[in-house]
Design brief:
alpha/beta, Rossmann fold, 7-stranded parallel β-sheet, 9 helices
């Protein structure tokens, strides 16, 4: 008997739809959900990565579909596909997100970029919840998850659009939890500190994962360890499982270990490379 067979499958028989599931935190969560017995459909615009992941896993219970979360018909179609393919939808994980162009000065911020970030981070989550609810309300059960950020709780050196959008995600979580709780549907969100994902590395123009971890560790309260995508995935697994059956409206599952701070100016990667003790935030 191998070690995999000894794992209690906490999502056995459940169907999960994860947006932004082709890479980063979404990919990590998708892998873990599958490992714990879920039938998983990942939705993303990164077609090559999505198809590659499906090929790697080679599991009939894992599939990919192209979906732009800012396009209502795309979101409606992917929810309908999950139901037609697997017969139901138990978990809707609105994980797709965008940091934006990295500009932190409001005077230099792009209005188009601001709208784009809100469209993906807030509107995309709203649409995911809307169409998932259409399936879950008649079933009188379900779980809707959102990815927020520690920046929804403290002001750190991130663009205004990103921080404001993550506050919006928290507000949406609270509002939906009240409405949908009456139908037996739980709505929660996770607010992680920075993790070295492809999104993080692309935003900072960073190619060295270890260097990214050092940047994050400088501002962390909890020393001696670094938040990994797998840690985020385990938090999502818990909230999606029946172990969290009475947890609804949670907006403060924060994975932070970070000093509350206010930072001004743009991220300066070269400054960090020259002075590796400089805090990220």
């Amino acid at each position: 008997m191998g070690p995999e067979s000894l794992i209690t499958k906490r999502l056995d028989g459940k169907v999960a739809l994860i947006t932004g599931g082709a890479s980063g935190l979404g990919e990590c969560s998708a892998r873990l959900f599958l490992k714990h017995g879920a039938k998983v459909l990942i939705a993303d615009i990164q077609d090559e990565l999505g198809h590659s992941l499906c090929k790697e896993l080679g599991n009939e219970n894992f599939s990919y579909v192209h979906c732009d979360v800012t396009c209502e018909s795309d979101v409606e179609n992917v929810v309908n596909l999950a139901v037609s393919k697997y017969g139901k939808l138990d978990i809707m994980f609105n994980n797709a997100g965008l940091i934006g162009d990295g500009e932190v000065r409001v005077t230099d911020a792009s209005t188009d970029n601001f709208k784009r970030v809100f469209d993906i981070n807030v509107l995309g989550g709203f649409l995911g919840a809307k169409y998932a609810a259409k399936v879950m309300v008649p079933a009188k059960k379900g779980c809707i998850l959102f990815s927020s950020s520690i920046s929804s709780k403290i002001s750190i050196g991130l663009p205004h659009a990103y921080k404001a959008s993550k506050h919006g995600v928290v507000g949406l979580t609270k509002s939906l939890a009240v409405e949908l709780g009456e139908h037996g549907i739980r709505v929660n969100c996770i607010s992680p500190h920075a993790t070295v994902t492809p999104l993080f590395q692309t935003t900072l123009g960073l190619f060295d994962k270890k260097k990214g971890e050092e940047m994050i560790a400088v501002s962390a309260v909890l020393k001696g360890t670094v938040l990994e995508p797998e840690d985020f995935a385990h938090a999502a697994l818990y909230l999606a499982s029946d172990e969290a059956k009475f947890i609804n409206g949670l907006t403060c599952l924060s994975m932070e270990g970070i000093i509350s701070a206010v930072s001004h100016g743009r991220w300066d990667l070269q400054h960090f490379l020259d002075k590796p003790t400089s805090p990220l935030f």
